[in-house]
Amino acid sequence: MVNMENVLKGKVVEIKKGMPMTKIKVAIGGDIITAIVTDSALKELDPKEGDELEVLTTDGVMTARDLH
């Protein structure tokens, strides 16, 4: 079960594709965080600039979830 205190909603503001990792910048409130995702996660999320994502945090690790 996800603790909702650890869920941050934001918008994708930039995607820089690379091999084998991609940087996704997400605006959350007035801050921008950068998520580094694998190629398989990029395919699964299929993010576009302007998309809303939920960023889940836990013990120093963050994961993203698409809100389409």
Could you please describe the fold and organization of this structure?
The protein has 68 residues and is mostly beta strands. It has a single domain (4-66), classed as Beta Barrel (OB fold (Dihydrolipoamide Acetyltransferase, E2P)). Helices cover 10% and strands 57% of the residues. The chain has one helix and five strands; from the N terminus they run βββαββ. It has one helix spanning 39-45; strands spanning 7-16, 21-28, 31-38, 52-58, 61-66. Strands 3-2-1-4-5 form a five-stranded antiparallel β-sheet. The chain is globular and about 30 Å long. The two termini are 21 Å apart. The mean pLDDT is 82.
List the helices and strands and how they pair.
Blueprint lengths: L6 E10 L4 E8 L2 E8 H7 L6 E7 L2 E6 L2
Antiparallel strand pairs: 1-2, 1-4, 2-3, 4-5
* Total count of strands: 5
Distance between the termini: 21 Å
Sheet of most strands: 5 strands, antiparallel
- CATH architecture field: Beta Barrel
CATH class: Mainly Beta
The CATH topology label is OB fold (Dihydrolipoamide Acetyltransferase, E2P)
According to CATH, the homologous superfamily is RNA polymerase II/Efflux pump adaptor protein, barrel-sandwich hybrid domain
Strand order in space, largest sheet: 3-2-1-4-5
Mean of pLDDT: 82
Shape: globular
| Coarse structural class | mainly beta
Quickly count the helices.
Answer: 1
Q: How many domain regions?
A: 1
H/E series: EEEHEE
Fraction of helical residues: 10-25%
Report Rg.
11 Å
Percentage of β-strand residues? over 45%
